[in-house]
């Protein structure tokens, strides 16, 4: 069985303990992942599934730091419930969280890490309001694809009521994706149904070199897009084969699933840290 390095075992146990505190069926809740500082003042939060974290994710977080200057705290964030992605299983949320924490500590030590129990931005805004009373202004960093999703009525029982609540609590900083940039954002905000929210939405200038980097493309072909991920992610992919299809039951004795072996090793680490286990 794969052995989880000793220096990572406590990280797995600590992060799993935080995830265990989050129930998607409870009211919106946010948790700070140590050693990240407690949010206060103006914060910029970048929620994503980080599946996997890419160089574009890191560049966006760095750009948010530059945009905010020294007076703004910047956080990456993950949710126990991701809209349209609830069935993501490989790699697990815990593995993605471990990877993201490692990368932030090595490459962006000034960026904090938050966890949410809910997936909608309005729910996450409510979570920040309830969990961090010292926050005076909340800005979500999103890609163009997400602002389209945010304005999509199919995610709400009453879109305008939900959006008024969201923009009462938060502003949006929108980064371009692919061919969609500032001009397309202005057109989206100019639509009659969206015009009332335009003042709360701002474009974030972003290096075109990162616009087409996609976690989806990395998942589909990690080898072809190896340059699009940090070294820690590439090493994880190569060692665990997390994005390969699971072994087919009954495929024979020679069939193996390295990621399942990795999950068994992680489970053993978590059991070892459980009360009453040795």
Automatic annotation (TrEMBL):
All residue ranges annotated as the Cytidyltransferase-like domain in the record: 46-220
Pfam families attached to this UniProt entry: CTP_transf_like (PF01467)
Source organism of this protein record: Thermogemmatispora aurantia
PANTHER family in the cross-refs: NICOTINAMIDE MONONUCLEOTIDE ADENYLYLTRANSFERASE (PTHR31285)
Protein name in UniProt: Cytidyltransferase-like domain-containing protein
MF term (GO), any: ATP hydrolysis activity
GO annotation, cellular component aspect: cytoplasm
Residues making up the signal peptide according to the UniProt record: none
Gene3D superfamilies documented for this protein: HUPs
């Amino acid at each position: 069985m794969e052995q989880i390095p000793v220096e990572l075992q406590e990280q797995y146990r600590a992060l799993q303990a935080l995830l265990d505190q989050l129930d998607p069926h409870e009211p919106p809740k946010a948790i700070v992942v140590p050693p990240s500082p407690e949010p206060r003042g103006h914060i910029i939060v970048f929620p994503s599934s980080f599946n996997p974290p890419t160089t574009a994710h890191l560049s966006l977080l760095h750009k948010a730091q530059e945009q905010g200057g020294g007076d703004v705290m910047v956080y990456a964030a993950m949710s126990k419930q991701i809209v349209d992605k609830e069935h993501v299983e490989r790699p697990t949320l815990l593995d993605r969280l471990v990877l993201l924490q490692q990368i932030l500590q090595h490459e962006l030590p000034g960026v904090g890490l938050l966890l949410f129990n809910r997936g909608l931005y309005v729910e996450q805004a409510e979570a920040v309001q309830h969990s961090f009373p010292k926050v005076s202004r909340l800005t979500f960093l999103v890609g163009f694809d997400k602002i389209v999703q945010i304005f999509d009525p199919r995610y709400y029982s009453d879109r305008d009521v939900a959006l008024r609540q969201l923009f009462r609590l938060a502003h949006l900083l929108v980064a371009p994706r692919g061919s969609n940039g500032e001009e397309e954002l202005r057109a989206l905000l100019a639509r009659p149904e969206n015009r009332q929210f335009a003042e709360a939405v701002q474009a974030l200038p972003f290096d075109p070199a990162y616009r087409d980097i996609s976690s989806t493309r990395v998942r589909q072909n990690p080898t072809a897009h190896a340059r699009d991920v940090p070294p820690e992610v590439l090493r994880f992919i190569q060692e665990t084969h997390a994005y390969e299809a699971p072994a087919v039951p009954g495929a024979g004795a020679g069939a193996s699933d390295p990621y399942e072996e990795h999950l068994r090793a992680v489970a053993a680490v978590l059991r070892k840290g459980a009360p009453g286990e040795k």
